[in-house]
Design brief:
alpha+beta; five-stranded mixed β-sheet; four-stranded antiparallel β-sheet; 12 helices; 22 strands; elongated
């Protein structure tokens, strides 16, 4: 190598070293910058013919573990999902209170039943009667308040989804703009690549994103559910039709005509749109958590309150009219349906012979044809077959509808109307087919002195104080009933109704108060598993007091589970963030070591230049 070649090689070394020093300085200056990825100089030799003539900076590359980054984004979405759920379920737990604590739902219920027990001990006491009315009014108000707070939380979730969707749109627009700059000739611009990654990281807090690099330097961004957010060129637009002041009837449905809450519509470049929530395209992140809270967790809480309110009202007001046996042949039962209200039920039990398979059929009075046919889930019994029947055409028409139901079931039974409001169901008279084992009707008492001990102590304040019957006409009366439940004003006007169930009932007669206590504390009911308590195959069976306590316990367990899951997810995320920072973040000590190395290289190249200069001077003096 000649002297001039040595000089050129040393000069190239100085230039490369200076570039390396610039990289180190940039790393140190941005050690605390959010989203900054450590840079590293890539040096390559310069070759002329068969000889190396120096070095040059081939690239300034980002130190980035793409697989670790992908996992970090998914765990970021999961962490925001669990954190949002933990926050809401904790608030819900506070609203319901700890089991047995002052102000908790089960405590309010127990206070009411204790007041009824005191009344049963002294039915003539005006003080005891006032205590019962106060307890009932307080319990109804408590249910109403809880329902309103649940709906307020749903409204807040709706508003936050709207805000998150706007934020997602802003990020997607920024992504498109930055990506266009990268494709415009800046594919190696580390600052732009960092900016693009930071935008995608922001998206990962809102939803579960998966990024696929493209050969041209662009990226595809999709959710794990398959929703394409950015195709490498253009971003989609997300629309959310936010609704204000959600109520119990505000529910999500894939049918836009039935949906009464907002949904996320994905609008493509061509203008076409589809519902992202209908096929679960967003599965994690803050948005997914808010949607689940709005449409599942908080809806379940409302359903639990409605179930409790409905059973409380029904247990006190519903009279079971037992069937009377028909000796036959054919054998069966008669039941008097006088006073059967919309939503009331006629229950039939029969058994196949031989074989012994038992069956239960519930006939629910429904006058609204739009609600038919009924689903078997209309009752909580998993083995129940449910049919809706109308009384509009008279009792003969009722029998005809029942007969059609038997035909569809393949049951050898005969329904008829022997007279008045009586329904008769018997077997077909043939041996070894079907035997009727029971027939009864659940009839809501609408007055205070019907002659039966049941009374409408709680009524539906949203339906002009009508008794709760479980009507399905125009929609389920149970839906949102906890927000409308109120004390029967007729009892406020005349407290004797708490005792007097018929004309001439003595003021000290404990019959009605004892029945009310028994209905609330001893009678066992099957609760709808769609409330989130109990399973479809094994629904919860117990007293109303048991169910009230189970509601409170469920909210506490949900909050604790959500908090535990969030803490675990936080540990996972922190671990990944540390690994990512160790790999891609700036370590000042490491940069200082690189600085020393570059200083030594700079000094060495400078000495080569000095030496070659001295050699040139010597040659010129010869």
């Amino acid at each position: 190598m000649g002297v001039m070649q040595a000089m050129q090689a040393a000069l190239s070394g100085l230039r490369a070293t200076q570039a390396g020093l610039d990289v180190v300085a940039q790393n140190v200056a941005n050690a605390d910058s959010v989203g900054y990825t450590r840079r590293e100089q890539v040096v390559t030799q310069e070759v002329s013919g068969n000889f190396t003539t120096g070095v040059r900076t081939a690239a300034i590359k980002r130190i980035l573990d793409v697989l670790l980054q992908r996992q970090l984004r998914l765990e970021t979405a999961a962490a925001n999902y669990t954190d949002t759920r933990a926050s809401y379920t904790s608030e819900l737990d506070k609203i319901f209170g700890a089991p047995g604590s002052e102000g908790a739902l089960d405590t309010t219920f127990n206070n009411f039943t204790q007041a009824l027990e005191s009344l049963a001990n002294d039915p003539a006491s005006f003080t005891a009667r006032a205590a019962v009315l106060g307890g009932a009014s307080g319990l109804a108000a408590h249910l109403t308040s809880l329902s309103q707070q649940v709906q307020t939380m749903r409204t807040n979730a709706e508003a936050q989804i709207s805000s998150d969707v706007r934020q997602a749109n802003d990020l997607l627009q920024q992504l498109e703009q930055v990506n266009n700059r990268i494709l415009g000739g800046n594919t190696t611009n580390a600052a732009l690549l960092d900016q693009r990654d930071q935008i995608i990281d922001g998206l990962s807090r809102l939803m579960d994103v998966r990024v696929t690099p493209l050969d041209n330097g662009s990226v595809n961004v999709l959710t794990t559910g398959g929703l394409s957010l950015f195709d490498g060129i253009a971003a989609v637009r997300l629309d959310f039709d936010v609704r204000d002041n959600l109520g119990p009837q505000s529910l999500y449905d894939i049918d836009p005509n039935l949906r009464t809450v907002g949904t996320i519509m994905v609008v493509g470049a061509s203008g076409g749109s589809f519902d992202a929530l209908a096929t679960n395209l967003i599965r994690s992140g803050e948005i997914a958590a808010l949607v689940e809270l709005r449409d599942k967790t908080l809806v379940d809480a409302q359903s639990q309150l409605d179930e409790l309110a409905a059973f409380m009202a029904s247990a006190l007001s519903d009279h079971t009219q037992a069937g009377t046996a028909v000796a036959g042949p054919p054998a069966g039962f008669d039941v008097d349906t006088t006073g059967l209200q919309r939503g009331n039920v006629i229950t039939l039990d029969y058994i196949d012979t031989p074989g012994g398979a038992t069956h239960r059929v519930s006939f629910i009075r429904v006058e609204d044809p739009s609600q038919l046919p009924l689903d078997d889930a209309a009752t909580a019994d998993p083995n129940d077959r449910v049919f809706g029947i109308s009384f509009a055409g008279g009792m003969a028409a009722v029998a005809t509808q029942m007969q059609a139901a038997f035909t569809s079931l393949g049951a050898n039974l005969v329904a008829s109307n022997p007279g008045g409001n009586t329904v008769r169901i018997v077997d077909d008279g043939a041996g070894n087919t079907t035997d009727v084992t029971g027939l009864s009707a659940r009839i809501t008492m609408t007055g205070l002195t019907s002659g039966n001990v049941e009374l409408p102590l709680f009524v539906d304040g949203g339906m002009n104080n009508a008794p709760y019957t479980g009507s399905l006409d125009g929609g389920s009366q149970k839906l949102g009933f906890s927000q409308r439940i109120t004390l029967n004003p007729a009892l406020t006007a005349d407290t004797s109704g708490l005792v007097a169930y018929a004309a001439g009932t003595l003021a000290g007669d404990p019959t009605r108060p004892l029945h009310l206590v028994d209905a609330l504390t001893n009678a066992r009911f099957t609760y709808d598993p769609q409330t989130g308590i109990g399973g479809s195959a094994a629904p919860l069976v117990g007293t109303i007091g048991n169910f009230a306590r189970r509601i409170v316990e469920t909210q506490g367990a949900n909050a604790q589970n959500a908090q535990s899951l969030n803490e675990g997810q936080g540990i996972v995320l922190s671990s990944l963030q540390k690994r990512f920072a160790d790999n891609s973040g700036v370590n000042v000590d490491r940069e200082m070591a690189d600085l020393v190395r570059l200083q030594n290289a700079y000094a060495a190249n400078a000495r080569v230049i000095t030496a070659t200069k001295e050699m040139m001077d010597l040659l010129l003096r010869i």
